[in-house]
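Need a sequence for this fold. Nothing fancy.
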């Protein structure tokens, strides 16, 4: 059994990994941003050096894309410098670092899903800061993994999927962007797919982890509403209208328009294949609806 430290356990993915792996019997010690502040390198180094662990999973990041655009120093300190510190400490301890990154390291100009070997070209400060973190982790040693995910959803933390269903329960019209494509990623699926990488898969490198398939935000939202209706939720809006990304005036940072992730490498070396995104969304909506999450 590996001793696992999870940073960023207050976030959607970090919380899911801690929950799922602990339930599976793993020895997990998790920290949210208050428990281990990534913005202070001295505190982070001191705390991690006190711990005995085999794997550190770094889910901690500054992820608000527009906030990062106007707070570049903070973004690079947390997404880049702190990732470097964590990876170097892992290397010194002989532990593996699994660093969670993002599809936003790409510029979205591809005509096919992105592979791990495709060169990153971030459009935003957020993407650039995450890319710095990737480079630092890979440079720290050959046992470490950079894991890119996209459009993450799951229980306990509100995501786009939860928002669109909540709005449809109270509003007669809901809209979503119809010209931006990627691969939705269920947190429970990430926990299952990354489990072999805790100790069974040798080596390191870059890995894409996402549910199978491609959709726009509009298609993603529409399927969520279809599943919510099938689960018996009393929706006021049953159709998701489409709006172009250019119409969202609140956006500060540039966003890539096409960032689906190719997961062929994951299936080949991890021996597990991700579910289609529609199946993952349907199961999530059904379980959340049965638990009464969206109905007060």
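Here you go.
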């Amino acid at each position: 059994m590996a001793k696992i430290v999870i940073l960023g356990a207050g976030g959607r993915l970090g919380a899911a990994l801690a929950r799922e792996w602990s339930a599976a019997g793993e020895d997990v010690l998790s920290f949210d941003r208050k428990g281990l502040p990534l913005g202070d390198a001295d505190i982070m180094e001191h705390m991690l050096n006190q711990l005995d662990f085999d794997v550190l999973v770094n889910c901690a990041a500054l992820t608000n894309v527009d906030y990062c655009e106007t707070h570049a120093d903070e973004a690079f300190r947390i997404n880049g410098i702190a990732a470097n510190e964590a990876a170097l400490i892992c290397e010194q301890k002989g532990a593996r670092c699994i660093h969670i990154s993002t599809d936003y390291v790409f510029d979205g100009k591809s005509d096919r899903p992105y592979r791990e070997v495709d060169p990153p070209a971030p459009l935003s400060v957020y993407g650039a800061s995450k890319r710095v973190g990737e480079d630092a982790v890979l440079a720290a040693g050959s046992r470490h993994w950079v894991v890119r995910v996209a459009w993450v959803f799951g229980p306990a933390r509100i995501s786009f999927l939860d928002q669109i269903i909540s709005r449809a329960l109270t509003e007669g019209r809901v809209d979503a962007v119809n010209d931006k494509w990627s691969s939705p990623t269920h947190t429970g699926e990430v926990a299952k797919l990354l489990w072999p990488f805790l100790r069974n898969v040798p080596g390191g490198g870059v890995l894409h982890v996402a549910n199978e398939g491609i959709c726009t935000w509009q298609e993603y939202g529409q399927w969520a509403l279809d599943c919510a209706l099938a689960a018996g939720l009393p929706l006021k809006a049953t159709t998701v209208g489409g709006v172009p990304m250019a119409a969202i005036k609140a956006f500060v940072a540039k966003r890539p328009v096409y960032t689906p992730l190719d997961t062929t490498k994951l299936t080949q070396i991890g021996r597990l294949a991700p579910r289609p995104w529609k199946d993952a969304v349907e199961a999530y909506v059904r379980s959340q609806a049965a638990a009464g999450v969206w109905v007060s």
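For context: The longest strand covers residues 96-102.
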